[in-house]
Write a structure and sequence with these properties.
The chain is mainly α. It has 4 helices and no strands. The protein has one domain.
């Protein structure tokens, strides 16, 4: 079995089924956190690139054609600079920013807390 997602899922399920019921207190908490980390890693492996591209497109839409070729890290840096500089203080710009940030949040939640609504 060389598929990393399958390995992580097997490890998480084994811990959940075999290990967690035998633990209590702080040890159970730490094991549950490890299971959750493995599940997040699986979602990142499966969906991470698509979610990053979705976020990248949402941020690039704030800037138009000039930002189409920028990668996600560059767009995040630019966004942070522009927020600090007040570029999105205008109500229309603030609405566009909010839509982009909602997309970013939804992408992050899809990985860390997929059942959130």
């Amino acid at each position: 079995m060389s598929d990393p997602t399958a390995l992580l899922l097997l490890a998480a399920e084994t811990c959940r089924r075999e290990l967690l019921p035998e633990l209590a207190g702080e040890a159970r908490y730490h094991a549950a956190m490890a299971v959750r980390a493995m599940e997040i890693a699986v979602r990142l492996l499966r969906e991470g690139e698509a979610l990053a591209e979705h976020e990248r497109r949402a941020l690039a839409a704030l800037y138009g054609a000039e930002a189409a070729a920028l990668d996600l890290a560059a767009l995040r840096r630019r966004l942070a600079r522009d927020i600090r500089a007040g570029r999105f203080d205008d109500p229309a710009a603030a609405r566009a920013l909010r839509a982009a940030l909602e997309t970013r949040t939804a992408c992050r939640l899809a990985v860390s807390w997929p059942g959130y609504r």
